[in-house]
Amino acid sequence: MLADYHVHTHHSGDSSYPMEDMILQAIRLGLDEICITEHMDYFRNDFTHMVNYDKYLKEYCCMQAKYQDKICIKFGVEFGVQVHTIKEFERDFAAYPFDFIILSNHQIDDKEFWIGDYQQGKTQLEYNREYYQAIFDVISDFKSYSVLGHLDMIKRYDREGILDDRVNEELIKNILKLAIADGKGLEVNTSCFRYGLPDLTPSRTILTWYYELGGKILTMGSDCHEENHLGHFLLSAKEELKTMGFKQFCTFDKMKPIFHDL
Ligand SMILES: [Zn+2]
Ligand SMILES: [Zn+2]
Questions:
Q1: What is the 7 CA–ligand 1 centroid distance (Å)?
Q2: For ligand 2, a single-atom ion, which residues have Cβ within 5 Å?
Q3: How many angstroms separate the CA atoms of 73 and 237, rounded?
Q4: Cα 7 to middle of ligand 2, angstroms
Q5: 19: number of CA atoms within 13 Å, CB side?
Q6: Domain named Polymerase/histidinol phosphatase N-terminal: which ranges (predicted)?
Q7: How far is residue 83's CA from residue 139's CA, in Å, rounded to a whole number?
Q8: Domains along the chain?
Q9: pLDDT tens digits for the chain (262 residues)?
Q10: Which of 93, 137, 162, 222 fits as disulfide partner to 144, beta carbons 3.0 to 4.6 Å?
């Protein structure tokens, strides 16, 4: 069973990949299932990161009907939630029939990590700690999600190098414990391979903590934004998870996890 559970198409602000091309490529690659997870990020004064849910849902329904005999396609989204945007996401969750929701931290106080906007003027210890604290604060109040996306993504954009997870061990474990208690999961984001990171995303250390704390809900996704990302390294990720002791991974239907053997 191969399922890519993190895929962006032209409905996301940072991708121009047509949805139908992506689906045809997924069929060519022999994927059994994909979940489309368009970006939604709210800012106070910038509306360019907003998906048009109605257009997205309309095309999804059309594609799902056209290709349902060839591949299973799920309706998902990647919510980039900040503490001050929780209300907007609660409204979206209630308004659309999502199968699966990735909760990601892309910004704090509307400042982006990927361009170094948030990190500027802070020490490595400060921005790493604040990144994880923001995730903990969001999931303390917001429960309308399925998995934590690319949990240690801050490492991808850290010009100071990669900070050892043990520096923030207690905080990261508190995030994992809360997610487990809430019946939520963790995503393995295989974009780590194309970013040339020396570890998985999240790291083997964090995945091992998740395992030891009793975490069982895992999804795998390529974070695909263009054709040559799709389905990448899903098999490698499965093998890695098995060596850590995990036995199963998940797909989702109407926000409920379905378990499959790795
Ligand atoms: Zn993301
Ligand atoms: Zn993404």
A1: 10
A2: 78, 223
A3: 21
A4: 7
A5: 23
A6: 3-83
A7: 9
A8: 3-261 (3.20.20.140)
A9: 999 999 999 999 888 999 999 999 999 999 999 999 999 999 887 776 789 999 999 999 999 999 999 999 999 999 999 999 999 999 999 999 999 999 999 999 999 999 999 999 999 999 999 999 999 999 999 999 999 999 999 999 999 999 999 999 999 999 999 999 999 999 999 999 888 888 999 999 999 999 999 999 999 999 999 988 999 999 999 999 999 999 999 999 999 999 999 9
A10: 93
Q: For residue 65, give the amino acid letter.
A: A
Residue 218 has phi, psi (to 5 degrees) of: -130, 135
Q: Give the C-alpha separation, 16 to 14, whole Å.
A: 7
Rounded to whole angstroms, the Cα distance separating 237 from 108 reads: 29
Rounded-to-integer distance, Cα 219 and Cα 257, Å: 9
Cα distance between residue 45 and residue 65, in whole Å: 37
Residue showing tokens 């100071």: 160
Q: State both tokens at 10.
A: 């032209």
